[in-house]
Design the sequence.
């Protein structure tokens, strides 16, 4: 139901249907995020640790090849992290399906992690389930908000300690002390958008939806799953309205950006104004349709 497009990940109302609204994460991605330092460090680290570097210093062609390869280190790291995150999310989904008494692939998902030397992530997920004892109500559930115009998929809705919780898993690395890194605060915005959904998917093949049942969930929770532990954090309730206002503003930014993306050329050439005392316009001139008057203010003097 969701596919990647030039304007981000988009959702349809049913399998094979027309794409209508952006995903929650696509909207949140409109916020500026400066990763220049990380990109530079990744490239420098990849180049410095490349065993071919000493020989390449004496060969300009090989040196350029190494530089080009190192320049893409951040993208490779990002893609690898995304693939690992997919595997960890799949394992967590299977745990929920098993707890709900539904068909599952827990063993296969764990084997997939083991093949990539990522079993410790599964161990951390198992530990979280043992400690928090969630009672799953829905796993990987797709939600829709037609008023604002977005859709998304929530990792887990569960009852924990008698309270309904919306839960988002984040696969995270560990710091130098061996502790898992906390989730980015943007996860609160993501969870609030899920809370404010209007519908949830019942059947993707037929496009059947129902009113969202968990809009009154009491706890919004993020679980950072790492190789050493799982860290659980709760969104501060008093800050949720601010995150919702921010998300709605970002949704407007996305919509206007998408309009501009399909509007065509945004800049066009403009000739210099005619020479003074040259009514014939010889030497160029600014056509009326292209003067600054069409945007704002007086024409060019």
Sequence:
């Amino acid at each position: 139901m969701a596919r990647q497009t030039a304007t981000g990940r988009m959702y349809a109302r049913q399998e094979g249907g027309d794409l209508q609204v952006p995903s929650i994460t696509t909207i949140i991605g409109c916020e500026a995020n400066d990763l220049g330092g990380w990109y530079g460090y990744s490239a420098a680290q990849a180049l410095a640790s490349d065993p071919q570097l000493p020989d390449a210093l004496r060969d300009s062609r090989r040196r350029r090849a190494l530089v080009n390869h190192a320049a893409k280190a951040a993208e490779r790291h990002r893609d690898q992290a995304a693939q690992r995150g997919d595997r960890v999310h799949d394992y967590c989904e299977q745990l929920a399906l098993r707890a709900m008494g539904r068909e599952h692939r827990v063993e296969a998902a764990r084997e997939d992690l083991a093949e990539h030397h990522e079993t410790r992530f599964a161990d951390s997920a198992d530990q979280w389930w043992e400690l928090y004892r969630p009672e799953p109500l829905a796993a990987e559930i797709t939600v829709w908000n037609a008023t604002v115009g977005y859709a998304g998929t929530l990792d887990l809705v569960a009852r924990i300690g008698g309270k309904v919780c919306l839960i988002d898993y984040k696969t995270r690395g560990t710091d130098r002390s061996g502790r898992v890194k906390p989730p980015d605060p943007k996860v609160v915005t993501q969870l609030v958008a899920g809370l404010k959904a209007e519908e949830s998917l019942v059947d993707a093949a037929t496009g059947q939806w129902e009113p969202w049942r968990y809009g009154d969930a009491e706890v919004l929770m993020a679980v950072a799953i790492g190789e050493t532990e799982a860290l659980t954090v709760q969104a501060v309730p008093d800050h949720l309205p601010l995150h919702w206002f921010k998300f709605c503003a970002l949704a407007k930014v996305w919509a206007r950006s998408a309009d501009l993306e399909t509007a065509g050329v945004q800049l066009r050439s403009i000739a210099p104004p005619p020479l003074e005392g040259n009514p014939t316009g010889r030497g160029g001139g600014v056509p009326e349709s292209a003067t600054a008057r069409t945007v704002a203010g007086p024409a060019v003097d």
